[in-house]
Structure formats: C-alpha cells, structure tokens
Amino acid sequence: MLTVIVEFKLPEKITISQARETFLSTAPKYKGMPGLVRKYYFLSQDGTKAGGIYLWKSREDADRIYTEEWKSFVRVKYGTDPSLTYLDCPVVVDNVLDEIISES
User: Fold this and answer.
1) Which CATH number does the domain 2-101 belong to among 3.20.20.70, 2.160.10.10, 3.30.70.600, 3.30.70.100?
2) Poorest-confidence range of 6-20, 36-50, 90-104?
3) Phi and psi at residue 65, to the nearest 5°
4) CA–CA distance, 67 with 63 (Å, rounded to integer)
5) pLDDT band at 73 (very low <50, low <70, confident <90, very high)
6) What order of strands is seen across the sheet that includes strand 2-9?
7) Beta-carbon neighbour count of residue 43 at 10 Å?
8) Do residues 50 and 42 make contact, with C-beta atoms less than 8 angstroms apart?
9) Which one-letter DSSP state was computed for residue 41?
10) Count of C-beta atoms within a 10 Å radius of residue 63
11) Which one has a higher pLDDT value, 75 or 13?
12) Residue among 30, 27, 37, 34 at smallest CA distance from 89
C-alpha cells in the first residue's frame, strides 16, 4: 500500500467550518474511486495549510489520479500548487473496523 500526503499553503487563512464546506464539495468524487482505500482531508490548526492524506492499494492507482489535470483542479480550487509526499505503508491498524491491514 502507499500513503500520499498532499499539502498546499492556502492564499488566505480559513476556518474549520469553511474547510469542511469546501472538502464536502469535493469528497463525492473520491467515493468508490478504484484503488483508493481511504482519504483524510486536513486543515492545519492555524488555518493556513490544507490537504489530504490518501491510502492507495498501489502506486499505479495513485498515479492515475495525480495528473496535470488534477493539479490544475487543485490550483483553481485552492489557489496554489500542491506538494505530494509518497510513503510506503506496509501495515495499517484500523480500530473502527477492528482489523490490521497488510498487503504482502
């Protein structure tokens, strides 16, 4: 599995309520997306940075999404370019589902 942290500095500080409204407007496009296990939206506590933490089944799944078109969408929606950090994710502990996930 692969974790990708997508982060961008916001042009203006926003509140958690503003972030929630914006994130809810884009969340449906990720529901049921092939290869995406989970996505967490985040806002820094000072309201100056936002992004998502994605858990993918594979790098190939992630690469199908992080295209120039997607980067342009982020640029238009949030006013800045995203940075992407790729991390191997060999084990996930999920206390909601009460399971440990590991792909071999």
Assistant:
1) 3.30.70.100
2) 90-104
3) -100, -40
4) 7
5) confident
6) 36-43, 49-56, 2-9, 83-88
7) 20
8) yes
9) E
10) 14
11) 13
12) 37
